[in-house]
Amino acid sequence: MNLENYFISQFNNKHIGDDGAVIGKYVYSKDAFFENVHFKREWLSFYDIAKRAMLVNISDAFAMGAIPKYALLSIAMPKSMSREDMKNLAEGFKDIAAKFNIDIIGGDTISNTKLDITITIISEVHKILTRTGIKENYLFAYTGTLGNSAKDLKKLLNLGKIHQKSRFTNIQLRHQFLYKSLKHLKAGMDISDGLYSDLEKLTDANRIGIEFFQRIPKRIGCSGEEYEMLVAFAPRDRKKILRIAQLTRTKLTIFAKAARNSYKNRCKAHHF
Questions:
Q1: In degrees, to the nearest 5, what angle opens at C-alpha 129 toward C-alphas 100 and 258?
Q2: What are the pLDDT digits (tens) for 110-141?
Q3: Which member of 18, 27, 198, 247 has the lowest number of beta carbons within 10 Å of its beta carbon?
Q4: pTM (two decimals)
């Protein structure tokens, strides 16, 4: 068990284990976005920092099949930030919130030596999508194209530049595909730690293994912070899911099925 999972295991209760916690008809989710951990200020504008922080958090809500309604922002910021910097940061939060009809209802701000952001999203849900419910022979698929986020991060770490439309800054959320296919999906989550790592979470939650249909290189399987969707569904729903993907212009790769074997994640942990 890695250190992240060990710490989470100290708070074992029925609400922990998915992308958000379900309480009644609401889902509560929270993610941190910290300077020198998730980003460096020289990589992104203040507007783009706020934009990415919001999208990362909204992704968790969508991954649960929920509709995000409200956001609470906690911002620790350096005193060296100017009023213009703060305005640009605020504009990033507001623009993404407006795009997804989310009301920013409060939070907290403190002075800090660096820029650290934590966001809580409160969402409404009618049909929940969790990480459990996978049976033998159910199919696994992911949306979009994986691998570009890790590639662009490597460029940034090597002091290079990335394209303005890079997936590192322009996260594509798959809510249209999710909402339309929700009644056919048996389990799902967003790909934040990498396909292989997040597959481990699904297989552990369902006590099942994986039979891959094709080889997936580590540069793709270990690429974190993709925020594409990893979903599972029954074989009988394959045509319906592919049709919905086509209608929503969502690339969908069916790459494996659930099997009675053991699965081992080949990627190192992102957080610790």
A1: 130
A2: 999 999 999 999 999 988 999 999 999 999 99
A3: 247
A4: 0.89
